[in-house]
Write a structure and sequence with these properties.
The protein is of the alpha/beta class and 130 residues long. Helices cover 34% and strands 32% of the residues. Strands 1-2-3-4-5-6 form a six-stranded mixed β-sheet, with helices on one face. It is globular, with a radius of gyration of 14 Å.
Length: 130
């Protein structure tokens, strides 16, 4: 299985999902329009990863903003981490946010409440560098 690497655009984040290390990274801004199929390939790739995952999967999220389309897709991916846990694998979410961005922190807390995977909250002092 190949690394999934998608370069960022003004409306989509940088994506680097590495099946060899189990580290999945989303970084930037996720506001694709409803007619873009940005998340389709990512969700398909992740489903394939679930067939042969690493012992530990780390999901790193550092987004400064995302829309409802992205919110649903991120939640879907987090629910898939629950499935890994149910099968005996470990997962962790590293939720990064700017120190003054309480909204993004709260969204992470909401996700943490909805899934059965440990979250680590990482407060950042500077803007996202892609």
């Amino acid at each position: 299985m190949d690394i999934l690497l998608i370069e960022p655009t003004p409306t989509t984040p940088k994506v680097k999902f590495n099946p060899n290390t189990g580290v999945m990274k989303l970084k930037g801004r996720a506001i694709p329009s409803s007619d873009q199929n940005f998340w389709g390939d990512i969700l398909k790739w992740f489903e394939e990863y679930l067939l042969n995952p690493q012992p530990i999967t780390t999901f790193e999220v550092y987004l400064d903003y995302f829309n409802i389309i992205s919110s649903k897709s991120i939640l879907y991916l987090l629910y898939k981490l629950n499935e890994l846990k149910d099968r005996g694998y470990e997962s962790i979410v590293k939720w990064q946010y700017l120190s003054h961005d309480e909204d993004m922190f709260e969204v992470g807390k909401d996700y943490e409440y909805m899934v059965n995977v440990p979250f680590e909250f990482i407060e950042k002092q500077e803007k996202i560098k892609l």
